[in-house]
Amino acid sequence: MNNWHQLHPVTIIREIGVVAWAVIGVIVFDFGPDFSIEAVPWLPTGADLFELIFAAGAFGLAIARYRSTRFRVTETTIEFRRGVLFRTERTTRRDRIQNVAIGAGLLGRIFGVNTVQVSAGDSAEIELTYVGAQTAQRLRDGLLPDPATPPTLPGVAGSGAATTEAIPIRTIAQLDSSGFVRYLITGPVVVSGLFAVVLIGLAIGLREFWPLLNLAAILFFFLGAGDVFDFRADISGDRLQVSQGLIRREEKSAELDRIQVIQVVRPFIRGLFGFETVRLQTADVSGETSMQVNMLSPLEPAGRGLALVADIFGSIGVTEQDLVPPARVAIRRGFIRAFISLVVVGIVLAVSTAIIVVVNGLDVSAATAIVAVSLYLGASVVVSFLYTTRRYHRLGHAVGERHVMVSTGVFRRRLAVVPIAKIQSVGMRRSFWQRRAGISSITIDTAGMSLAGITATTVIDIPAGLGRDLARRLGDGASRVALPDGV
What we know:
Blueprint: E1 5-6, H1 11-29, E2 36-37, E3 47-48, H2 49-68, E4 70-73, E5 77-82, E6 88-93, E7 99-104, H3 106-111, E8 113-119, E9 126-132, H4 133-143, E10 169-174, H5 177-185, H6 188-203, H7 210-225, E11 232-236, E12 239-244, E13 249-255, E14 259-267, H8 268-272, E15 275-282, E16 285-286, E17 290-291, E18 295-301, H9 305-313, H10 329-360, H11 366-394, E19 396-399, E20 403-408, E21 412-419, E22 423-429, H12 432-437, E23 439-446, H13 447-452, E24 457-463, H14 464-479
Antiparallel strand pairs: 1-4, 2-3, 4-5, 5-6, 7-8, 7-13, 8-9, 10-11, 11-12, 12-13, 14-15, 14-21, 15-18, 16-17, 19-20, 20-21, 22-23, 23-24
């Protein structure tokens, strides 16, 4: 592949789609002079010259963009060029490539072509849309060679040297058809149901749009769940390989050493059914803010998630029973915050109700209003107490020899495991009320979080002295462990 190669001709359809909205805008809003063409028999009656020229120009631009896009693979780099008026050239060293992802959207699956994303652990990735399926596989195998059986890239010297032993592939997570149904029931079905209720409420006043709103609810449901259809995660050598997707099928991989954080997530509904989801974050970024690999298992029985963490990190040395709860004063702080939030909501509801009563001339006695306010305040106290109690029992942290475990979330619990060696920075944050109460929150940041703009893992409401000791311990522990190159 030392020579420059074009993308698959199907790319022209994609390029047309890029400028299609401009063409539609010209036709719908009829910009420009109105010069109809009646003399040409094969044109529609009343065809507009300006619109035809604009559409032809857009099609020509799509062809030009396609023909100007080239890529090649040399012995040391992969190079990419594109642009008609403004030329973009990008070169990535092959020894810096961390991930090569293959995806096939609806158009790609119809025509049998793939999108190839080449990432070197930063946001400046190379995206080839589209290439043939065989070319995509050859690119991935060549740019990320299997140490046991290195594949061959045509035209690249030194590739294809065989070794004696193949590395086994071990499946650590898989979602079959029955598991996919359980995943839908414990998540997307509930969310889509709430979404449908909102749409029904809107449709009461917009009945003529009811079919469109129904379609929106269906699309929301399938788009929310289709990403994990036929999910499979394998470990091959030192790499995690993931394949997933219904409408858009993707095959992605990441080096095990690049995984920064693994989270066992237990949403409220899914937890009631006894299941959890395992997510991860790597130091490999696709585009601006999305991770190349972000799922380890969509659905696991409760308690199984930490076993998957051990499959990736090895023994983590701590369990949920080792979690140290926050300071007791966090109960009071949490109660006050929850109660104030409910009071603010109550004031908004009271003002809205008063406006409705006045506008419609309704007769509401003072006694009725006092009873309603009293019941709301009483319910707010009960809800705040229940929320605070649950919050206190959900927060916690535990530090092992090589890993730190942090539990956060109330109704959506997140149990994060971070290798101490991956920690980039540790900070202590104290609000005004935390300073008064003598507590603090510790933020733990890794490369994957920093690159993708993801909120850092936070140890919440621990005593200030313990917080300073924890920050110092984690910082010192991270500095004593050598990091792999590029992490």
